[in-house]
Amino acid sequence: MATTTITLDDAVKQETTEILDTLGLSLSGYFNLAARQLIIKRRIPFDIEAPDPAPNEATRRAMVAAEARELGIIPDDTPAFTDVDDLLAYLDEAQACSS
Fold this sequence. Notes:
This is Damage-inducible protein J. With 99 residues, the protein is mainly α. Helix content is 60%, strand content 0%.
């Protein structure tokens, strides 16, 4: 059997090896398993997910404001509507005031 060299970051290799050890798989065994599944399924055999990005400044401010409203630190003056007619009347009034 021919061997292939794969470059892998040391930290990634260590963490991967630790997880695979708990599953009874070697790193080489895992790569062979993943490659065989790629051949069988003709697609990557797992979902690829991007890490959640850190919230930007506007999002962080909105999160803080929402928590402050929830805790009663600042008043929740957001209008609430029970039906569409009330909402449309509110929007019409807001538009008339801004014009």
